[in-house]
Design a protein that fits this description.
- By secondary structure, this protein is an all-alpha fold.
- The protein contains nine helices and no strands.
- The longest helix is centred in the C-terminal third of the chain and has 23 residues.
- The radius of gyration is 18 Å and the shape is elongated.
- It has two domains: 106 residues, Tetratricopeptide repeat domain (Serine Threonine Protein Phosphatase 5, Tetratricopeptide repeat); 61 residues, no CATH class.
Length: 168
């Protein structure tokens, strides 16, 4: 990004924080007009399309483009994983997470945490606990580790409830 685009990007990010989505949208579009390979601008436009317009196809396109523009820019990987999770596209999510494990700028504990959430949503509680434990092992952040331990407790509670209601 050139200096003008960087400043415009920071302004757009401030617009997002102030819920001024229309202004942010215009600024991201302006950046992409000048620099069509701007991964941050594509990522942020994807986020807007997903969260403000519920246009998952356009969001996905921008996330994929951001990844192609800068394969080490981590934010697009996070957002497309959330999109796959929201859309219950679990097979694609699994493939995506496998790729994420090979990207050096992505926190591996986050990847294992996403594997775990995917398994939890599919009610594969043993696998979910397994992946939350892997997330703990990959993490060096005490707060994240506490969160993963809480996630394990939630999954174990769900497992107990599912056993209790297995005959229903």
């Amino acid at each position: 990004m050139n200096t003008n685009s960087e400043e415009l990007y920071l302004e757009a990010e401030a617009d997002i924080k102030n819920n001024n989505y229309a202004e942010a949208f215009k600024k991201y579009e302006s950046i992409l007009y000048e620099e069509p390979d701007s991964a941050p601008a594509h990522n942020s436009l994807g986020w807007l399309y997903k969260t403000q317009f519920d246009d998952y196809a356009k969001a996905e396109n921008h996330f994929i483009t951001a990844i192609k523009c800068d394969p080490l820019y981590p934010h697009s990987y996070f957002h497309i994983a959330a999109l796959f999770m929201d859309m219950e596209r679990f097979d694609e999510l699994t493939q995506h997470l496998e790729r994420c494990l090979r990207i050096r700028t992505i926190d591996k504990s986050w990847v294992y945490g996403r594997y775990a959430l995917s398994e939890e949503l599919r009610q594969n509680y043993d696998k979910a606990v397994f992946y939350f434990e892997k997330a703990i092992l990959a993490s060096q952040n005490d707060e994240k580790i506490k969160d993963y331990r809480n996630d394990i407790e939630r999954v174990e509670m769900k497992r107990e409830i599912s056993i209790k209601h297995a005959d229903s």
